C-alpha cells in the first residue's frame, strides 16, 4: 500500500461503514447475545454441581454444612441423622435441624428391613406404685415376646432420671434405621408441682421451639400412655382424674405426628387399675406383634394431636353424606340400578323360581360402579356384591365416652358394641329424609346375584372390626371401650336399603344369634311376604313415616304402585307377629309433612298393628339435594318440645281409644321418645330394657317364645320421662369437644 492509499484509508473505512453499518451492527449484536447466553449456561451448571455436592456432603457427614430454619412441616430424614444433628449442634451452637420436607415415614415405610423392635417404658412416681406397675409391665412384655427374636428386651426409665433431650427431642441414639422404637408411658397424676409438671412443659417447649421440628418424635413407630389416678378424690377427667396422662398423650400425638399405637388407658388406683392395665397391656401387645411383623400401625386413623380436641363429628345422629352437593347423574349400567333394564326382572318374592331366567343376574353394586365409589367414599365397607357395613357416629361417640345412642337409654345397647349393617344396599323407597340419596340403588325386585349368608356375615364383621381398629389413634378413645368393642354384641340391620330384601335374611339372623349378637331389624313396610316369613329377631321395627296414603307417597316416595296396600298388609302381619316378636313402630316426624293433625291417623295404625313400642323421633336434616328438592329444609326439623307435644297428643288419643300406652323413656339428645305398651310397667317402673342372654336362650331352645320371655331390668331412672336420658357415665360435648350443659 502506497502513501496515497494510506491517506485514503479512513475515507474508505467511512465509506464501508456508511454502506454496511446495518449489517455490521446486527452481526455484533448477535455475537454479543451468543456470548452472554454461553456464560449464563455455564454458571448455572456450576451452581448445580456445587449444590449437588453440598447435599451429598450433608448427608454423608456428621456435621451439617448448612442450617435451614425449621418450617412447621419439616421433619428429620431419619432417626440416626437427627440424633447426630442434635448431638453435633448441642455442644457448639443453638440446636439446628435440617429442613427436608416430611415424608411421614415410619421405619418400615422407608423400605428398610425392620430387624428389631425396641420398647421403652417410661414412668414417673412419687409414692412408688407406678414404678412397680412399670416393672411388672416390662416383665410381662419380656415374657410375652421371649420367643420373638425381633423384640429386644424392654428398657425401663424413670422420667425423673432421664435426660429429656436424649429421648423426648428425638428418639434415642440407639434407634437405628432398622430398629423401630415404641414408647409406653405410665404416669400418675399430681395436682401439685412435681417433676411431671416439668416433663409436660418440656413437651410443650419442644413442640413450640421453632428450631426443632414440630414432630420431632415422628420417627418412633408408635406410643401409648396409661394413667393412674384416684376417682374418689378426682371423680371425672374434668375434675382432675388422670389429667396429666391425658396431657402427655396429647403432646405425644403432636410430637410423633399422630403415632398413637393404642388409646390412652386409665385406671383408678383404688378400684379397677389392675383390670384396666391388663386390658391396655393386651391391646398394646397386639400392636407390638403387628409392628414386629412389619405391619406398622395398620390403617388406623391417627390421632389429631390437637391439644384442644375438636368435636370432629357433627351432632346429628346420622352422618351427612360427604358430598351433599347436587350430583351430575352418571348413567351406567351399574351406577343407576333403578334404571337397569334386565330382560326379565325376577320378583324376589318368588326367587325360588329365578332359575327360569336365562340371563345371569348381575352384582347389585359392582366394584367398578360409581355407586361403589360413592358409598366407599362415604365410609361404607361394601361386603360381597350387595351388603354394607359402616360404623355409626354413636359407636365413635361411645368409644370416646361421649354418649351412646338412644338405644342405650331405651334398650341397654352400648353403642360401642353395636354393628350397623345391611345385607341389601337396595331399597324400594326414596324417602325424602334419607341421607343416602344419589348413592344407594333402588328397585322393587331382587334382580341381582345373591351372596351366601356366611360370606355376608363374615364380611360384615371383618369390615366392622377394621373400622373399629381405625379408631384406635383417635384422641379421647377410651382403651377399655376400645377393647370391649372388639366383640360385637348387637347388630342394627338398618344402615341403608331394605334388609328383608335379602333372600337369606333368616339364615343371616340365625348366624348373628348363634354368636350371641342381638338383631334389631328395620323394614319399610313394603314387603309383606318377607315380613310374614321372618324368623326370630331380637327387635322388629317397621318404619311408619306417615299416617295416610298421600303423606306416605310424599315422604317415602315408594316405587311400588300398590305401596299403600303393601303397607296396610304389613300392619296386619305385625299384629300377628306381636305374639312372637318384640314389635316396634318407628315414627320419624317431619314438620310440615307428617305431624300436624296426624296423631289420630297414627293412632289408627297403632290400633291396627298393636306394636309393643312406638319410637317417635324428630327428623334429622341431611341437607341433600334430594331433601331440598322435596322442599325439605331446617324448618322441617321439629324441636324437642314439638316432638314431646306430638307424643303426648298420641298418648292421649290412644288412651281415648282404650289403648294403654305410656311414655317409657326419652333421649332428648337425639330428639327421641319411647311410648310403650303399659304391660311393660310393673313394680312401679317401666321395663323397656332387653335381657339379651334370655333371648339367645329362647332362640337356642328351638321352642316357640314370646317377647315377654326376654324382658330386661327396669329402665334406668335417668332415662325416665323428664330426665333427659343421657348416659350419666359419659360426658356430653359440643362440636368443639367442650362439655355441654343439657337442659331438659
Ligand atoms: C398430692 C396428691 C395429688 C394427687 N393428684 C391427683 C390428681 O390430680 N388426679 C388424679 O387422678 N390422681 C391424683 N392423685 C392420685 C395419684 O395419682 C395416685 O395415687 C397414683 O397412683 C400415685 O402414683 P405413685 O405412687 O406412683 O406416685 C394424687 C395423689 C396425691 C398424693
Ligand atoms: S343402634 Fe347401633 S347403629 Fe344404630 S345409632 Fe345406635 S349405635 Fe349406631
UniProtKB/TrEMBL annotation:
Residues 119-285 form the Flavodoxin-like domain. Its cofactor is [4Fe-4S] cluster. Gene3D superfamilies: 3.40.50.360, Aldolase class I (3.20.20.70). Its EC number is 4.1.3.44. Residues 411-660 form the Radical SAM core domain. The chain crosses the membrane at residues 20-39. Pfam families: Flavodoxin_1, Radical_SAM, Wyosine_form. It catalyses: N(1)-methylguanosine(37) in tRNA(Phe) + pyruvate + S-adenosyl-L-methionine = 4-demethylwyosine(37) in tRNA(Phe) + 5'-deoxyadenosine + L-methionine + CO2 + H2O. GO terms for molecular function: 4 iron, 4 sulfur cluster binding; FMN binding; metal ion binding; tRNA-4-demethylwyosine synthase activity. Residues 309-320 have a biased composition (Acidic residues). SUPFAM superfamilies: Flavoproteins, Radical SAM enzymes. Pathway: tRNA modification; wybutosine-tRNA(Phe) biosynthesis. Residues 61-109, 298-336 are annotated as: Disordered. It is an enzyme of class 4 (lyase). InterPro entries: Aldolase_TIM, Flavodoxin/NO_synth, Flavoprotein-like_sf, rSAM, rSAM_sf, tRNA_wybutosine-synth, tRNA_wybutosine-synthase. GO terms for biological process: wybutosine biosynthetic process. Residues 75-89 have a biased composition (Low complexity). Keywords: 4Fe-4S, Iron, Iron-sulfur, Lyase, Membrane, Metal-binding, S-adenosyl-L-methionine, Transmembrane, Transmembrane helix, tRNA processing. PANTHER family: S-ADENOSYL-L-METHIONINE-DEPENDENT TRNA 4-DEMETHYLWYOSINE SYNTHASE, S-ADENOSYL-L-METHIONINE-DEPENDENT TRNA 4-DEMETHYLWYOSINE SYNTHASE TYW1-RELATED. Belongs to the TYW1 family. This is tRNA 4-demethylwyosine synthase (AdoMet-dependent).
